[in-house]
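Please check what follows.
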Amino acid sequence: MRLLAINPGSTSTKIALFEDGTQLWDDTQRYDSDVIGRFPSVEAQEDFRLDEIKKALKDKGAELSDLDGVVGRGGLLRPIPGGTYRVNEAMMEDMKEARYGSHASNLGAALARRLAEEAGCPENSFIVDPVVVDELVDEARLSGLPEIERRSIFHALNQKAIARTAADEMGKAYEDCSFVVAHMGGGISVGAHRGGRVIDVNNALDGDGPFSPERAGTLPTGGLVKLCFGGTVTEKELRKKLSGKGGLVAHLGTNDLREVQRRMEDGDEKADLVFRTMAYQVAKEIGSRAASLEGEVDAILLTGGLAYSDVFVDEIRRRVAFIAPVKVYPGEDELKALADGAYRVMSGKESPRVYER
């Protein structure tokens, strides 16, 4: 079975062709900001990106008629359980209307559906584990104010893919394992996985949880209120400080952990403190998720770009290794995760889920 996986980003589209689970090739289409800027909205880019994907397929000598399925990255939908979803009209409408927010990933479903239709396999157009996966237990959802409910928005695709990989290595089904998974990239999300569900996780989109290279993390409430009403920043500026210009960027002016480590090696004490504090906060969040799992943790899984840093990983490991074994999976492979999810349905190993408005 041949399958095309699509991952639309803000200024790029990544695609890869798979055959029976093996990647044959991949391609990244990058767009100049002035090209993307001529479109009034993300949703208006659909035809442009579709044509670019077709050109890439032609350049690679691939025919649409050879495809048995197409899978796209899932975007901002209503909160849904994890799994592989067939693209349907309800999903298409919510994405095109940007009903739950506008993001480049919203294009994944539409591109998958249109390419699958042209390939003659519209029933095999999918999305897998979008960022809005919501499997929280009630205790994780409630906050101290009735009008503010905790939201589940996190790196669901990579977290669940890594959890499945770890379960396979242990000779167990994902549904039979309990993991704490920390995705550590520009944003950091730490999830408690039990019974194939993520029962507790921080909202990585808004920047809750540990501070990260670009996000401020959970802040002292009184200080945040004072900042909100102090008249020094607008709401737009504050949102950018919380998610985009927080964390390492705010403290050190860079989101590159390698640069931070170079400064540490040169004796920069501030860089050293900020680096260790970020690892400390990740470790604390892992401990919190272990409590969510009542201490029954098969393994702690560290993934994402920051997991390439042995020093950063070691800082976390020494604080959490008493909880469970720590396993490290650096980086992320979203295209493979998308393909694996689609293949599970196409091979009959898993039933597709149905999206409803």
About this structure: The CA atoms of residues 231 and 238 lie 11 Å apart. The first helix runs from residue 33 to 37. The first strand starts at residue 2 and ends at 8.
